[in-house]
């Protein structure tokens, strides 16, 4: 799988671009950073991250490639701004019912939807995240979901990271299922019905008793090999149960474990 890395651009140029501290004033209709970034996102959405290049973005805008460099130093900086921009799409309501759990559920589902809209996000390694205004606002919003529930600052950060990492892993199955339909011309249900008769012939319940029993039940229920959405909801509930246990421990007076050094 094609993988790109965020944070590879020049730090000063990337931060200036992310926060628009050096953006040149442009007349109405002139090429600008926002137009370039939106075109780049459209390319990645439609063709995948491997197709993204300064030349391809210029073609989409109908301009010369060199004209982009007046506004964006290079692909590394462009990718950072693309990431920051799409993270600004997630809603940040303040009236979510259900306390901290309801807030984290909403955050997880909104991030799930974001990945489905922009599958190329799964192709970007963000251990060095773009430190832009939208990514920062998102982090602040997600932290406030568990503000005042008894966790330390480090635990709040860990909880947000846990939920975000869970969504990142769980949504891959849903994205791959959607892409498989487009590339094979078969839905999961059609694929399952085509394979099920042959699977019944080779699956020996005496040799694989547990797999045969559970697999048959799951296949009957899902009409597919898996159900990524159901798996996501099941896993999310278990993650939140674990966070609930942590919060209960802190409310009961249990101190956080010592930090390894």
User: How much beta, percentage-wise?
Assistant: under 5%
Cα(first) to Cα(last) distance is: 36 Å
How many strands, which pairing sense, and closed or not: the largest β-sheet? Answer: 2 strands, parallel
Order of helices and strands: EHHHHHHEHHHHH
Backbone CA Rg = 23 Å
Please tell me what the overall shape is. Answer: flat
Number of strands: 2
Q: List segments where confidence is low: pLDDT < 50 over at least 5 consecutive residues.
A: none
> What topology, given as strand order, has the largest sheet?
1-2
Domain HTH tetR-type: 30-90
Keywords: DNA-binding, Transcription, Transcription regulation
Organism: Micromonospora humidisoli
DNA-binding region: 53-72
What attributes characterize this protein structure?
261 residues, mainly alpha, two-stranded parallel sheet, 2 strands, flat, Repressor_TetR_C, Homeodomain-like_sf
């Amino acid at each position: 799988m094609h993988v790109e890395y965020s944070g590879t651009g020049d730090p000063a140029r990337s931060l200036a671009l992310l926060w628009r501290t050096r953006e040149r004033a442009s007349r109405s209709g002139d090429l600008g950073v926002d137009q370039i970034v939106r075109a780049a996102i459209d390319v990645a959405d439609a063709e995948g991250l491997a197709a993204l290049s300064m030349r391809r973005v210029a073609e989409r805008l109908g301009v010369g490639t060199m004209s982009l460099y007046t506004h964006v130093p290079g692909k590394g900086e462009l990718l950072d701004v693309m990431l920051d921009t799409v993270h600004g799409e997630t809603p940040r309501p303040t009236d979510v019912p259900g306390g901290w759990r309801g807030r984290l559920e909403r955050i997880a589902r909104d991030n799930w939807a974001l990945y489905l809209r922009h599958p190329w996000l799964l192709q970007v390694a963000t251990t060095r995240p773009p430190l832009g205004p939208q990514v920062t606002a998102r982090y602040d919003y997600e932290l406030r979901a568990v503000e005042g529930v008894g966790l330390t600052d480090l635990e709040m950060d860990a909880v947000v990271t846990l939920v975000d990492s869970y969504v990142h892993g769980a949504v891959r199955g849903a994205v791959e299922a959607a892409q498989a339909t487009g590339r094979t011309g078969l839905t999961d249900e059609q694929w399952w019905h085509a394979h099920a008769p042959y699977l019944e012939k080779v699956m020996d319940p005496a040799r694989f008793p547990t797999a045969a029993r559970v697999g048959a039940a799951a296949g009957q229920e899902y009409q597919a090999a898996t159900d990524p959405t159901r798996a996501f909801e099941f896993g999310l509930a278990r993650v939140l149960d674990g966070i609930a246990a942590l919060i209960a421990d802190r409310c009961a007076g249990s101190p956080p474990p010592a930090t390894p050094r």
